[in-house]
Amino acid sequence: MSTADLGMCEMPQIPGVPDPRAATLAGLRALADAGWLRQLDWALAQFMARLDPDAAPELLVAAALLAQFEGRGHSCLPVNLLCARPLALPGWPPAAQEALDALLRGLSTDPTQWMQALRASHCVQDAARAPQQGAQPDGGTPLVLAGPPEAPLLYLRRYWHFEQAVAQQLRARAAEPIAVDTALARHWLDRLFDPAPTGTCDWQKLACAIALRSRLAIVTGGPGTGKTYTAARLLAALLAVDSTPERLRVALAAPTGKAAARLRQSLETALAGLQARVGDTLDLAGFATRIGPARTLHALLGARPGTRRLRHHAAAPLDVDVLIVDEASMVHLEMMASLLAALPAHARLVLLGDKDQLASVEAGAVLGDLCQGAEQGHYGAGTVRYAQAAAGVDIPLALRALAVPVPVPLLAANTVMLRESHRFSGPIGALALAVHAGDGARAAALLRHDASGALHSLEGVDPQAAVTLALAEGPAPSYRDYLLRLGRQPAADDAPGHAAWTASVLAAFERFRLLCAVREGPWGAEGMARAIERAAREARLLGGTGQWYAGRPVLVTRNDAEAGVFNGDVGLALPAAGGAGLRVFFADGPSLRSVSVARLAHVETAFAMTVHKAQGSEFEHTALVLPPHAGALLSRELVYTGITRARQVFTLVAPRAGLLAQAVQLRTQRASGLQDLLRREAG
Ligand SMILES: Nc1ncnc2c1ncn2[C@@H]1O[C@H](COP(=O)(O)OP(=O)(O)OP(=O)(O)O)[C@@H](O)[C@H]1O
């Protein structure tokens, strides 16, 4: 949402608005001027006051806080929370809370009055009473009241629409399983998987069996639990059971270019490795070449510059039978709605991701919502029988749905959680597990007493310690490795040498990353990036001047389909072959692409980046920088995501001891109505 969406470019005073509405608007504006509310939040309240001259002050406050909530990634604002604890809503520092408190003092403390204030306005649609009104995201009232009667939710219309559309599409996809020849499925799954030890459940095989009979399959699991390994076997099994395998159209996508390229490469390697298992009956190598290039979701859907319109939608669907989406935790609500709308009804959608990672920056926590109850399984009797017949898998009793009618996740029969990490078992795995379990004391002890060299902590330090670490010499990789390679550029006429050099500089850069919890301040990504850049110049590891110089690492911050770059892409500015000026080079797996620096308007220097932006990437050595105060941002999910970006070495940098343990106690809960929409009675 932007002020343009509200049809407002500026926020003039409103003449003739009576008290106490004027006082409420003035109070909201003061909060915005102080930087606690966004200008956009206050603008929504002002917009509501214009649209509805009778709007109660409670509605104006609710509108501003709803916009603020949306900016923090929530899809809606729980009205009960608004009534019961309005002061705790935004998670602001004490001074801001006091200002909000002063504003709220004149308003009702009675929840029913808040509800009445919302319902009374013609700007708010009560979806429970008028469910059909306004099917379009931008048509009808700006706000919608929805959710169960006991826990109503206030939405901006767009997000209500996206949630409804996502739930409806997922229900339709989950409604009817695809008919499977269980004997044939069993034959191929037994060939593709080794027999599991007696008494254990092969979750990967179960995931394949479930995906074989579903238009929607969700495979969640922590790092290295074999999501890609499973997807490769699923593709082989789909090819094997398909009646016209030569026509099977598979597409691969991920939210970022890097994650998409990684998926493509891993699947290709895995399919090649499976050839010996399946013999001559299946041409997996040929199949792998027929799979299209992995693309970002934006590129797949045909995003166009400067517009929200996509080339593919319900009336112009994707030409695909199977779509595999990796890093699905990063897919936000609007993107999921667009993706589901563009997918033909017959196509299979396979979502791979880690439900415990940070959700997308934008509103929604779709994978988390879809995976509600994934740990408990909730598999019904039909799924238990099918798993046995098609995969020879015995679903443990503890993960079967109870016979009594209780609400169970609608997507239980479409979801499998992989539970064993095949790559991530050492000290970093143990640390991630402790954080995931909320055991801050154990996490701190692991960091402090690690003797393997995999875990390090610099606590009680100032920001300079992180800068020093980022350029350090030593066994653990730092930026020094790639900076030293910069000076070893081959002769201008040596094209093959130039390509090899570029690849080696990029590979060296990818070995280390400094990640920050926040963007701003001396502990934030922007300040850290500037400090590292300065220090690298002082140490003569970097030459050049100005904005663009050889070795500048950049993070793309806006999609530009024409230039072929997407939000989240990370590359390095390097001299092009033949002395043709600076270009930014991006590595997509083994292949390189480059864009002239003049084409890249929306980039940031990426010597440091936020944990959010690093999702979907892993580095040999990852350093996680925590700031002294980050409020609700410093959460268990953030720390877990940061740690799991490290493959071999993880370093924590924090201004004081105990910050990690403190962060681990705080869980990110995103308000959303999707879980409720995706529940049914088990019988
Ligand atoms: N059942 C298995 N037996 C042997 N090796 C396995 C098995 N499952 C996965 N692996 C191996 O473990 C490693 C991690 O698997 P994979 O990359 O598929 O995990 P992932 O869940 O996709 O990881 P990421 O978190 O990076 O997305 C790979 O080398 C893979 O070959």
TrEMBL record:
One of its GO terms (biological process) is double-strand break repair via homologous recombination. Residues 606-648 form the UvrD-like helicase C-terminal domain. It comes from the Bacteria. ATP binds at G221, G222, P223, G224, T225, G226, K227, T228. A helicase/nuclease that prepares dsDNA breaks (DSB) for recombinational DNA repair. Binds to DSBs and unwinds DNA via a highly rapid and processive ATP-dependent bidirectional helicase activity. Unwinds dsDNA until it encounters a Chi (crossover hotspot instigator) sequence from the 3' direction. Cuts ssDNA a few nucleotides 3' to the Chi site. The properties and activities of the enzyme are changed at Chi. The Chi-altered holoenzyme produces a long 3'-ssDNA overhang and facilitates RecA-binding to the ssDNA for homologous DNA recombination and repair. HAMAP family: RecD. NCBIfam families: recD. This is RecBCD enzyme subunit RecD. It comes from Simplicispira hankyongi. The lineage of its organism: Bacteria, Pseudomonadati, Pseudomonadota, Betaproteobacteria, Burkholderiales. The gene is recD.
